[in-house]
């Protein structure tokens, strides 16, 4: 692996989503693992072509919901049965049916907050600037072009060979992505 401290990677530009999917498949088959793709709209099959792993957001959401629900129920139980036990009308101190609305609401609150924060954390957001914005042609990524970027931290990355590889995939433009 050739290491360039100022290089983020090499980027290839394609005209259609189908070309991008084929390029992503061939890139994975060639052994590259640190690859990302950019498109102006969702491209069906791109995640499978890149072999992206399943997201951790559903698990984080579940754990946040469980924590919120258990925390809400526990707080109510602690207040009603342990700290301030009041025997009103002979009802039990742990009157769980009365605890259901608050428990439900805190479950939803915990799940939604953990989903948002988990998504932001896993996506490393907020990130006001990314190295791909240093490529002048990348402005077309939000309108009509499709890009694939092989990162320099990939074990197989070699600047000249990776650029030739992307040219061999019929990329219209191959650009070096500066990390500066």
Give a structural overview:
This protein has 180 residues and is of the alpha+beta class. It folds into two domains: 1-43 and 146-180, Alpha-Beta Plaits (2-Layer Sandwich); 57-122, no CATH class. The protein contains five helices and four strands; from the N terminus they run E-H-E-H-H-H-E-H-E. The chain has helices spanning 17-29, 46-50, 57-83, 96-122, 159-168; strands at 7-14, 35-38, 146-151, 173-178. The relative contact order is 0.29.
Measured distance between first and last alpha carbons? 20 Å
**Amount of beta strand:** 5-15%
| Named CATH topology of the largest domain | Alpha-Beta Plaits
Q: Helical percent range? A: 40-55%
Q: Output the strand order for the largest sheet.
A: 2-3-1-4
Q: Please report the total strand number as a whole number.
A: 4
Structural class: alpha+beta
Q: What radius of gyration results from the CA coordinates?
A: 25 Å
Query: What count of helical segments does DSSP give?
Result: 5
Run of helices and strands: EHEHHHEHE
**CATH class assignment of the largest domain:** Alpha Beta
Globally, the shape reads elongated
Largest sheet: number of strands, sense, barrel closure: 4 strands, antiparallel
Tell me the CATH architecture of the largest domain. Answer: 2-Layer Sandwich
Unreliable stretches: none
Topology:
Blueprint: E1 7-14, H1 17-29, E2 35-38, H2 46-50, H3 57-83, H4 96-122, E3 146-151, H5 159-168, E4 173-178
Helix pairs in contact: 3-4
């Amino acid at each position: 692996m050739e290491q360039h401290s100022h290089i983020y990677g090499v980027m290839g530009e394609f005209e259609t989503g189908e070309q991008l999917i084929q390029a992503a498949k061939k890139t994975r088959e060639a052994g590259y693992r640190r690859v990302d793709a950019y498109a102006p709209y969702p491209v069906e099959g791109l995640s499978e072509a890149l072999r992206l792993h399943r997201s951790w957001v559903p698990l984080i959401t579940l754990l946040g919901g469980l924590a919120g629900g258990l925390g809400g129920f526990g707080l109510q139980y602690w207040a009603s049965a342990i700290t301030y036990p009041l025997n009103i009308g002979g009802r039990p101190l742990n009157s769980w049916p009365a605890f259901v609305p608050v428990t439900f609401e805190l479950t939803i609150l915990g799940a939604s907050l953990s989903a948002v924060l988990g998504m932001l954390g896993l996506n490393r957001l907020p990130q006001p600037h990314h190295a791909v914005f240093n490529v002048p042609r990348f402005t077309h990524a939000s309108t009509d072009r499709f890009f694939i970027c092989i990162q320099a931290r990939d074990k197989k990355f070699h600047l000249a060979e990776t650029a030739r590889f992307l040219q061999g995939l019929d990329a219209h433009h191959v650009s070096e992505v500066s990390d500066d």
